[in-house]
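Give me structure tokens for this 83-residue protein.
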Amino acid sequence: MDNQDILQRIQTLVQEEHDLREQPQDAGDGEAHQSHAARLRKVEEDLDQCWDLLRQRRAKADAGENPADADARPISQVEGYRQ
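Here you go.
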């Protein structure tokens, strides 16, 4: 996976995130609401993971290292970063 592939994945996830946020929430159906919320949370986590991988690849390239040596970090690690 190269930087262009990662950017394409990010664009796809951003579009899905926007679509999910625009969908009306039916407060009467708890299961559907939970499913929607879980999918949105997963998309947000995947986005953070993709951005982290892209940053790693760019940092390696800037340091003269091979960007292909960058690996996606676990979501638990990426989500634990301080903003």
